[in-house]
Design brief:
Number of strands: 5
Strand content: 15-25%
Number of domains: 1
CATH superfamily: RelE-like
Mean pLDDT: 87
Low-confidence stretches: 5-9
Order of helices and strands: HEHHEHEEEH
CATH architecture: 2-Layer Sandwich
Distance between the termini: 50 Å
Shape: globular
Length: about 120
């Protein structure tokens, strides 16, 4: 087997550890509560599970996310995002770990939320 194929195989086997910072944990709980109170417990649970699984899937190929346009304008680097329906999962890759910073409703003012959360001076 060639070195290139062997390296590719090793990288495919490597899994990143996914960590939720407290803001992301709070986001998940707030989304759950909102849907629970405004729709149903069943839908809240399903949405919570889908968002959580989407975050955990980052252990496989976290680089698949893209740079947030709002942060690119501010020349802030190092954060990526993936989407699940209207929700934007914002994370950072450091070595072999993924840190989920926030899970935001894309219908809200993302620029303002990012400035409050990620660009704290």
């Amino acid at each position: 087997m060639s070195e290139k194929k062997l390296k590719s195989l090793k990288e495919a086997e490597m899994k990143f550890r996914v960590n939720f910072i407290s803001d992301a944990e709070n986001d998940l709980l707030e989304i759950y509560k909102y849907v629970y109170l405004n729709d149903s417990e069943e839908r809240a649970g399903k949405l919570f599970d889908k968002l959580y699984q989407k975050c955990l899937a980052l252990q496989e190929i976290p680089e698949r996310g893209h740079i947030l346009p709002e942060l690119r304008l501010l020349e802030v680097e190092g954060f990526l995002e993936i989407h699940y329906k209207p929700y934007r999962i914002i994370y950072q890759i450091l070595n072999d770990e993924v840190f989920v910073h926030c899970i935001l409703d894309g219908r809200r003012d993302i620029q303002k939320l990012l400035q409050e959360r990620l660009i704290r001076g």
